[in-house]
Amino acid sequence: MVSASYSWPIFLGKPWFKLLHRKFLGEPTQFKNIQNLPIVHHYGYVCDLPPGHRFPMKKFHKVYDFLCSSGIVTKHSQVIMPNKIEKSVASLVHTDDYLDKFFSGSTSTEEQRVTGFNWTSHLVDRVRYESGGTLLTTVLAMDRGLACSTAGGTHHAFPERGTGYCLLNDLAIAAQFLITTGKARRVLIVDLDVHQGDGTAFIFKNLETVFTFSMHCGRNFPFRKQESDLDVELREGIGDKEYMSSLTDYLPDVLQSFNPDIVIYDAGVDTHAEDNLGKLKMTDEGLFKRDLFVLTNVINRGIPCATVIGGGYCQDIDKLGKRHTIIHHAALKVWKQKGL
Amino acid sequence: MDSWSDDDDWFYESIKRYDLLLMFDFSSPVKFIEFNDLDSVCLIFEEENCRNEMSCFSLPKKLTVLREHEGLEKDSDFRLLSGGFSQKSVIQVKILKGTNTMLASEKDLCGLSVYKIPSENSGIIHHTNTIHSELLSPKLAHNKLDSLAMVDTNKKNVVLLDTKEFVVKGKIKTEENEEESVIIPEFVSPHSLGLCNTETGSVSIYDTRSARKCSMLHSAQPFPKTQWTLSSSFLSTSHIADSNDETKLGLLSTSGIISVLDTRNPQHTLSCEKGKDICSRSAKRNIPKIQFCPSKFPLLSISGFNPNIYIYDFSSENMKNIFVHDGHHRSSSTCENITTDHVWYKNSVMSACDNLSVHCWEYTR
């Protein structure tokens, strides 16, 4: 949605003439017109990859299409587009040297190989849109209580390098942005992707204002784990019941003790039994219960929550896209229940 | 009361000068504006990384409702319907109304790229296929029915495409023989294609059914070191227009000369303007744009010289400038800013400038 930055104001006895200038993120004229659960999406989340590439890039379009066709999203009143993340904001977390190389295409062959992508300018664009999207989602969540992105969760990126399909750490950038700008004093990152959020853990290992909680499969990548503030390693092959048992044991206590100003929730679906990479055995129903549990516990405490879709790898792009919308279904349910 | 800035003065005056004024800022400059249907518009943004971002928006209700009901409407927003990226840098686009299909001539592409503007349940404008031809990055003209003319601007070959079947239905071998000249097309009626020689401003009219030249029109006077462009009143007639006049041809030079000719009487110039009111064009821009107003009034508009849009009354031999939209020029802008495109929507104009602004406005008559 693009709001008029100027149109004749209503006269209230005295004329007001103000031109509202757009800022990087602070587009207040867009925010005010968002009704219902805010959904952050950009068609630039997708770039072309070589045929047969393992990363299911097209899933981001599928997520949005399913949200539209299922009635979860009303384009006119819910969707807000992010801008590309600026280098100055990404540098809150990443080194200038890495950002210069990444933005300009000077990363080495080996540096590109470990990310899983060959560099293209369009790849840079999509990464910047995705990170911008996560950042916007957190700002929206602070404003509205709950907001969802249709992408995000690039938690393997380190300050000076990308790895594992992650080139910029969007969760870390968003969290650090909120802290640096004073929008939040304490940020909790709940990462339920099947892979440990090693990049995020490393970035915030010495920062007390950001708490990193990662619940993942111990036998999945990365094989050399970092140390989050709380790591819960699950054994290979567990299903919904055991998963929820572990989550129930830890999440409420973390929320209680850390008392964050916002939760950034990575709702990766690669814990699903049909995931190509994940080694757990959750079901669609289990994912929905998981997401509902997280959101309900967070929102019930009056804490805003920003969600990203996280990881998911499946040959059937339609199925995968639909699976990634489970978090949005859960978010809409909580939105309505809580009267946000 | 605080002292007014220049911007504030302008806004204060705008209440008297405009019946409608909506001003938007985007994150990239808009390169092309193309209406999709009565309620939506496609904006093609300036290229980045060798491709253009394309977005389809629903029009603000304040723009689409009857002017007498505009005060009852609160909605002044563009709402994003879909978006995507072009395959390559876009030279020109044409939207086939009622089909949600966009045809794009792109840099280094022999032929056209075809894009589908999606319906309700998808958000992606996606490339569906490429129509290959021997014409490299052709200029396009659409007769609003079923014909698209593709012109190789240097080789002067014209290919006519059936826009229902997407097959070539005819070719025209032009009689242009100046080696250095470039020609651009525009339909002047459903079956008459005008080819404008950008160096001389002369326009050859070809019948697309017989592929034969019917007539030739000359601009008011030749002018050295200028380039010409054209538009026809036929293009402004549509289901949103009041006008049925399909007889006027407008020529505009980069030096600001405007000529209006009658295609039925090509030897006589109806109206002319020497362009003395327009600042000299910045060298970085392409050929400026001329458009006829779709209403009954004998009005035309020009842009592409500076941040302004100029409206002229061509009812008499000496064309009269009756309005200048100077809203794109803000106190923070520079004189180097140039309008990139403008189109009429009923009696309103949508205009874009390279300082990221897009305006919807209707001046007070």
UniProtKB/TrEMBL annotation, chain A:
Keywords: Hydrolase
Gene Ontology MF, one: histone deacetylase activity, hydrolytic mechanism
Catalytic activity: N(6)-acetyl-L-lysyl-[histone] + H2O = L-lysyl-[histone] + acetate
Domain of life: Eukaryota
BP-aspect Gene Ontology terms: epigenetic regulation of gene expression
Gene3D superfamilies: Histone deacetylase domain
Pfam family, one: Hist_deacetyl
Domain Histone deacetylase stretches: 53-315
Name of this chain's protein: Histone deacetylase domain-containing protein
Organism phylogeny: Eukaryota, Metazoa, Ecdysozoa, Arthropoda, Hexapoda
TrEMBL record, chain B:
InterPro entries, per the entry: WD40/YVTN_repeat-like_dom_sf, WD40_repeat_dom_sf, Wdr73
GO cellular component, one term: spindle pole
SUPFAM superfamilies in UniProt: WD40 repeat-like
One GO term (biological process): cytoplasmic microtubule organization
PANTHER family the record matches: WD REPEAT-CONTAINING PROTEIN 73 (PTHR46947:SF1)
Protein known as: WD repeat-containing protein 73
Organism: Gryllus longicercus
